[in-house]
Amino acid sequence: MNSKTQIIATIGPASKDKRMLRKMIEHNMDVARLNFSWGTHEEHKQFIKNIRELEIELNRRIPIIQDLSGPRIQNKDGHTFNSDMVEILTKKDLKDLAFGIENEVDYVALSFVSSSRDVDLLREAMKKLGKVVPIIAKIERAVALVNIDQIIENAEAIMIARGDLGDDVPLKRIPFIEKDIIEKCKAAGKPVVVATQVLLSMVKNPTPTRAEMTDVAYAVLTGADGLMLSEETAMGKYPLESVQIMEQGIKEAEGHLRSVEINSL
Question: How far apart are CA 137 and CA 153, in angstroms?
Answer without folding.
Answer: 11
